[in-house]
């Protein structure tokens, strides 16, 4: 995401979709593993107000961004038609305000990993009150 997103401090809803070539939502530093000072930018700038995040039709998206953990006000996360996404990060546990998670038309592997009690990613999402995974 562009660093200019930091100027959108009142942004409450963000939809990223229909980007067939998009492979990552991380900034340059995250992709290359560079310095801590850039870790999570611009996600960190959106932490107080972003309530809803929708990621759809991103067929090459492999990972959710590391900076997602900073979105302390996030209440709703919708992930749909992100077929290359095969797991959810441990940082999902830090999204304590998240009330609803919807995952649809993603990989079978992701669905399996999110299976209640037995899925590898279940510990990362079990705290979320409402989950729709289909």
TrEMBL record:
It holds the Pfam family LRR_RPS2. It comes from the Eukaryota. GO terms for biological process: defense response. SUPFAM superfamilies: RNI-like (SSF52047). Residues 7-106 form the Disease resistance protein At4g27190-like leucine-rich repeats domain. Transmembrane segments: none annotated. Keywords: Plant defense. PANTHER family: DISEASE RESISTANCE PROTEIN RGA4 (PTHR36766:SF70), PLANT BROAD-SPECTRUM MILDEW RESISTANCE PROTEIN RPW8 (PTHR36766). This is Disease resistance protein At4g27190-like leucine-rich repeats domain-containing protein.
